[in-house]
């Protein structure tokens, strides 16, 4: 179900991070660490973007007991998400790819 989503500063940081390599799956922990957004902000945002069709997620295919850690959930932009993200980012970017609030 595709829908328009209003993005906060955290949402813009998220899609900016994902749009650089849209086909690469990123774990929530990696995203949180890189864009410096708390899990309490990040995970509801990821769920909202996935429900809107901007993101697709999948669980890592490992056996947690063998890996010695929990499975990771990987998120990546869909084609729709990439298009929408680029549209949103075009309104807030300055020269050299910097975001307006940086």
Short description:
This protein is of the alpha+beta class and 102 residues long. It has helices spanning 9-19, 28-35, 39-51, 64-67, 79-90; strands at residues 26-27, 55-59, 73-77. The chain has one domain (9-60, 69-97): Winged helix-like DNA-binding domain superfamily/Winged helix DNA-binding domain (Arc Repressor Mutant, subunit A, Orthogonal Bundle).
Strand content: 5-15%
The number of helical segments is 5
Major beta-sheet overview: 3 strands, antiparallel
CATH topology: Arc Repressor Mutant, subunit A
Provide the CATH top-level class: Mainly Alpha
Q: What structural class should be given to the helix and strand makeup?
A: alpha+beta
- How many separate domains? 1
Uncertain segments are none
CATH superfamily: Winged helix-like DNA-binding domain superfamily/Winged helix DNA-binding domain
Distance between termini? 32 Å
Helix-strand topology string: HEHHEHEH
**Shape estimate:** globular
Rg over alpha carbons? 14 Å
Number of strands: 3
Helix content: 40-55%
Q: CATH architecture, please?
A: Orthogonal Bundle
Q: Estimate the mean pLDDT confidence.
A: 87
Strand arrangement, major sheet: 1-3-2
Provide an overview of this structure.
It is a single chain. This protein is an alpha+beta fold and 102 residues long. It has a single domain (9-60, 69-97), classed as Winged helix-like DNA-binding domain superfamily/Winged helix DNA-binding domain (Arc Repressor Mutant, subunit A, Orthogonal Bundle), CATH 1.10.10.10. It is 47% helix and 12% strand. It has helices at residues 9-19, 28-35, 39-51, 64-67, 79-90; strands at 26-27, 55-59, 73-77. Strands 1-3-2 form a three-stranded antiparallel sheet. The longest helix has 13 residues, at 39-51. It is globular, with a radius of gyration of 14 Å.
């Amino acid at each position: 179900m595709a829908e328009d989503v209003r993005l906060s500063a955290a949402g813009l940081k998220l899609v900016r991070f994902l749009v650089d390599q849209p086909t690469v799956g990123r774990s929530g922990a990696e995203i949180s660490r890189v864009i410096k957004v708390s899990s309490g902000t990040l995970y509801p945002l990821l769920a909202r973007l996935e429900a809107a069709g901007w993101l697709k997620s999948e669980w890592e295919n490992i056996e947690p007991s063998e890996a010695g850690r929990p499975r990771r959930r990987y998120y990546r932009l869909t084609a729709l998400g990439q298009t929408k993200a680029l549209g949103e980012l075009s309104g807030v970017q300055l020269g050299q790819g910097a975001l307006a609030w940086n």
